[in-house]
Amino acid sequence: MHDRTHTSKPVIGETPPAFKRSGRDLRIDACRGIALWWIFLDHVPNNIGSWLTLRNYGFSDAAEVFMFISGVTCALAYGSARQREGWSGTIARSVRRGWDIYAAFLLLTLACTILVYLAGPDHLADESNTRILFEHPGATLAHAAILQYRPVNTDVLPIFVIYHVLFTPLLWLLLRAPNVTLGFSLSLYALVHLFGWSVPAWPDNVWFFNPLAWQLLIVLGAWCAIEGERFRPWVTSRTALILAALYLVFSLIIALSWSIKPLEPLVPRTLTNLLFPPNKSNLSPLRLLHFMALAIVTLWFVPPDWRGLSTPAMRCARCCGENSLPIYCLGVLLALASHLPLLSELLAMQILLSLAGILVMIVVATLLNSISIKRAQQPTEQVASRIGLP
């Protein structure tokens, strides 16, 4: 992702414009970092800080943002790798990244188990979905190894293992027939809602994020990176903006009526019963449309050269976004620790915990960036010392 080099030889036909750009779109890392903060705040139980996230103001939340941006970054990273290294190099990169996420998932499962054990299984076993691990460790670990068992809030990682391993054939299809590929993805999404298709899980046979439904956001993000420039005039038109704004206002009124009792009379009960709750496991169409409306409004008001991206807050968000895997795992552990009664009962403690958690995420991300910079500088310093340069 750091090095989007363009060669004179296109992948096939015309090289996607996104692969020709030099530099890094700062909005991607900033949005992903903010999404990581929101995910952490939403996972803290009864947290007043969740009112700073999307969850209470519409049908979608940070999960849609995180999935879509992952599709964009995968297309940019693996598309550039395809130009430099060919398909074999792309396959190696995608499998290696999938392995990294798989290893992180297993380590995170182990870390969650240790944390629950130290806190006392009676306190956190049910909230963390680890009681079955303590009761049947052998079977549970075996199902975790094949991605069928997941402690609470770790559901995203197994999905990303699958998506990264399969991203190379998806990229091959998108580069040759992007609109047809998106059409197949939409068809699969529709079939999930028509027939209730899912992937086997254990022990309750439920994936909190159904991979067959949520794949649409990954494909849509990759499609936007490859083919989006041709459709940008439609997405950024005034008509699209007006429709998106109207839908956001509609969803805002509905969502607030679910959370604030004095606002309940504003929405007919029939409509409330019809729309509540928007299914998250299968990515309800209400959630999908809400995210798309948010994306359209963001494209209108946050250009690539927006000055706000250089503010301290956005620099911290970008830093977290650049280290999304370790920061996500850290956020899961911090949110799990917040389930302890001592940490989540008082309002002041919730505020302090929210601020401290985000601060810890920023500090760890900054340290990881510093380590990466030092590692990148070492080969240059070694070469300089060999030829006698200071």
From TrEMBL:
<feature type="transmembrane region" description="Helical">
    <location>
        <begin position="182"/>
        <end position="200"/>
    </location>
</feature>
<feature type="transmembrane region" description="Helical">
    <location>
        <begin position="284"/>
        <end position="302"/>
    </location>
</feature>
<dbReference type="InterPro" id="IPR014550">
    <property type="entry name" value="UCP028704_OpgC"/>
</dbReference>
<feature type="transmembrane region" description="Helical">
    <location>
        <begin position="238"/>
        <end position="260"/>
    </location>
</feature>
<feature type="transmembrane region" description="Helical">
    <location>
        <begin position="347"/>
        <end position="368"/>
    </location>
</feature>
<feature type="transmembrane region" description="Helical">
    <location>
        <begin position="323"/>
        <end position="341"/>
    </location>
</feature>
<feature type="transmembrane region" description="Helical">
    <location>
        <begin position="156"/>
        <end position="175"/>
    </location>
</feature>
<dbReference type="Pfam" id="PF10129">
    <property type="entry name" value="OpgC_C"/>
</dbReference>
<feature type="transmembrane region" description="Helical">
    <location>
        <begin position="206"/>
        <end position="226"/>
    </location>
</feature>
<protein>
    <submittedName>
        <fullName>Membrane protein</fullName>
    </submittedName>
</protein>
<feature type="transmembrane region" description="Helical">
    <location>
        <begin position="62"/>
        <end position="81"/>
    </location>
</feature>
<keyword id="KW-0472">Membrane</keyword>
<keyword id="KW-0812">Transmembrane</keyword>
<feature type="transmembrane region" description="Helical">
    <location>
        <begin position="101"/>
        <end position="120"/>
    </location>
</feature>
<keyword id="KW-1133">Transmembrane helix</keyword>
